[in-house]
Amino acid sequence: MIRKQQIIQKAIAANVIDSDLTAIGIMDFDGLQKTVAAAYDAFPTNFFHTFAVKANALVEVLKVLREYGMGAEVASPGELLIAKNAGFSNKDIIFDSPAKTLNDLRTCIKNDISLNIDNLQELARVDKLMLEFPNTKSVIGFRINPQIGGGAISSTSTATATSKFGYPLADGSNRQELINIYQQRPWLTSLHTHSGSQGCALELMAKGILVITELAEEINNNTGTQQIARLDIGGGLPVNFASEEVTPSFADYAQILKQTVPVLFTDKYQVKTEFGRAIAAKNGVIITRVEYTKNSGGRHIATTHAGAQIMTRTAFLPTSWPIRVTGYSAVGLEKTAEEFEIVATDVAGPCCFAGDLICADQQLPKLVPNDYVMAHDTGGYYFSNHFDYNSLPRVGVFSVSGNDENLNFNCIRKADSLDDVANNM
């Protein structure tokens, strides 16, 4: 019996999911530990891995990621507060928001939190703050847009010619201007890019990292010193949502990076990553109860309690973010084609619009009321990115750890009111 089968059966038997708490998310902490270990095993010791907090901003999840050796990459003041509540030290946090306020910048520089500058107007603010805090230990760099093109999902491609992120390196005389900026500011000691995301090929990601590495070498040669000591190469490792197989792996990515940018695999630079989805996605599932079923226009419709309010990307962009689903009986036994009729099925959520579907027109074993549906690979960008706060009291998140014979569940978030929601963020 596979681990997920054990998890859902014991969750049902222990009343972790019941008539009131009709949708739950489960993070496998043992799986998280193995994934973090795989990331560190794939790269040499000059690499330090941070977790993109936006991918799963639950304090209890972040606590264990910190214990497993990760830092935190944050993109908003709220994420910074969450990272601090999870126990991350300032030196292990990096702030990447493209819309930092003056107060955001002051907070980082005053408290030795690293940051990446997005544009020349932000640079002017940082120039003034460096006069105010000349002894800061913040590692400060520029976020570079290498303008190498996008991947299969345009909305998450960050290195297109017109991307909103970073300093557009290929425009006009920007490259030389940036070199001059670094020569005039010895406190600029890092370069950053995030050239890939879901839907981007590893070769494309590596190409963007090669661009900033060559720029770093040019700046260091011009200054005659190792002014740039850190390269922040972002995250964006794609996740396979089509099956249980972990592909590409961190080892796959490391191999392509080593072939494309071999200097990263020496001790010349400290290299930081910002993996999020690749760390969390396959270590989380959402389980929801089927409340009602019906047939409409030849389609079997199973209405559940997990839809767009939790699986927002899947509901609004189903072709870009499809999710595998598996049906289980009321006691947690997987429903298979050998035992149940296969029918064209829509698995629907509780929201009042037609597109609130986990999946549409999929051939699934026939679901009935009080069955369960598991949405796989939802540990990243699902548990903590809800948009419908009215639904939150009905959604709980639990961790699971231990071997298959002795699984232990721990409540991470179970909101009974909007006040509790706020207190648990």
UniProtKB/TrEMBL annotation:
Domain Orn/DAP/Arg decarboxylase 2 N-terminal, chain residue ranges per copy: 34-281
Keyword Lyase applies: yes
Entry-linked Gene3D superfamilies: Alanine racemase (3.20.20.10), Lyase, Ornithine Decarboxylase, Chain A, domain 1 (2.40.37.10)
Transmembrane segments: none
Stored Pfam families: Orn_Arg_deC_N, Orn_DAP_Arg_deC
Residue stretches making up the Orn/DAP/Arg decarboxylase 2 C-terminal domain: 282-379
CC cofactor: pyridoxal 5'-phosphate
Keywords per UniProt: Lyase, Pyridoxal phosphate
Family (UniProt): Belongs to the Orn/Lys/Arg decarboxylase class-II family.
Name by which UniProt lists this protein: Diaminopimelate decarboxylase
Organism: Thalassotalea psychrophila
